[in-house]
Amino acid sequence: MDEGNQTNVSHFILLGFPTSAELQLLLFSVFLVAYLLTLMENIIIILVIRANHQLHKPMYFFLGNLSFLEIWYVTVIVPKMLADFMTQDKRISFQGCMAQLYFFVTFVCTEYILLAAMAYDCYLAICNPLRYPSIMSNRFCAQLAASCWVCGLITAAIKLSFIAQLRFCSIDTINHYFCDISPLLNVSCTDSSQAELVDFILALMVIMVPLCIVVTSYICILFTVLKIPSSQGKQKAFSTCSSHLAVVVFLFFGTVFFMYAQPGAITSPSQSKVVSVFYTIVIPMLNSLIYSLRNKEVKVALRRQLKKKVFFH
Q1: 0.90 cut: is pTM over it?
Q2: Contact 290, 246 (CB under 8 A)
Q3: Residue 5 above 60 pLDDT?
Q4: Which of 64, 189, 194, 244 has the smallest CB count inside 10 Å?
Q5: What b/e sequence results for 9-38 when a residue is b if at least 16 CB atoms lie within 10 Å of its CB, and e otherwise?
Q6: Checking phi first, is residue 167 left (phi over 0); if not, alpha (psi -120 to 50) or beta?
Q7: What start-end ranges are recorded for coiled-coil regions in this protein (predicted)?
Q8: How many CB atoms lie within 10 A of CB 170?
Q9: What pLDDT digit, counting tens, does each position of 222-274 carry?
Q10: What is the Cβ-side half-sphere exposure of residue 156, based on CA atoms within 13 angstroms?
């Protein structure tokens, strides 16, 4: 297209889920319940960790960070999506779209790296228990968590710097329910190959490096656990990180497999939306449930807090 005929859009229209009014109401109700559950679960986890000194350990420090991240992760996307269900005006400003994309990518990248940090914490707790307290000091945990957030912020800034330079001409309709990278690249009217290459390289780094850390950590954990003579000792050692492993399996081997391992399988925008719903709504809701239901210390602390509330009332 001739450069002189190009004009950039001031807003985008998010098509969302174009269905009948009855189905729109059903989807609105389901997503609203999922959103409220995610907020409630993660707020409860944060409050329980803060209120119980027994949970003031590195493992739960990182879990608190993950819960805080999940709250904002869903809040960047779901409220706008819910609002679009209830109105005909599905516009989002160009600046609003870029802001939504930036924070979404930040939280996604931070979560991958944070899960790797949690795997490293599990590795030290089981494979190097004598040095664990000295290595995982409060200062080091804070530095590790801050590094996860900084990496996420920088990665998102790099990706956005390339995408924001693209021109979108008169194409203002995005066949998605939020501003994601692929739908934006699809409606660009200029050469997006450079932005696509940068996105691919950074996505590969953000996914593969943490994944290698997670896999290596759990291989070492597995060999260490197998050396423990008693079955009770094995069960106790592995239960320390079983909930983290479950979340990693859901997050990494679920969404990454569908989005990256078999991109040819996603042939339509509708399929892309279904997969996106899985990793933007379903997984955040399940993560906190897995951690609370599969973690004995969290369950005990939660029961203790509930008993206190009942007693004082």
Answers
A1: no
A2: yes
A3: no
A4: 194
A5: beebebbbbeeeeeebeebbeebeebbeeb
A6: beta
A7: none
A8: 10
A9: 888 888 777 766 676 666 676 677 677 666 666 655 555 444 444 567 777 88
A10: 21
**pLDDT tens readout for residues 172-213:** 788 899 998 888 888 888 888 899 899 889 988 988 898 889
Q: Which residues contact 135 (CB under 8 A, 6 or more apart)?
A: 124, 128
For residues 199 and 195, what is the distance between their CA atoms, to the nearest angstrom? 6
Q: Is 313 helix (H, G, I), strand (E, B) or coil?
A: coil
Which token pair is 57? Answer: 């350990």
Cβ distance 154 to 53 under 8 Å?
no
Amino acid, single-letter form, for residue 289: L
207 CB-near residues (< 8 Å, 6+ apart): 112, 252, 256, 260
Nearest partner of 17 among 174, 172, 170, 171, judged by Cα: 174
Tokens of 97: 């779209």
**Amino acid in position 209:** V
Whole-number Å distance between alpha carbons of 235 and 283: 26
- CA 143 from centroid of its chain's CA atoms: 20
How far, in Å, CA of 46 to CA of 61, rounded?
9
Q: Which stretch of DSSP H or E encloses residue 174?
A: strand 173-174
What pLDDT does 89 receive? Answer: 85
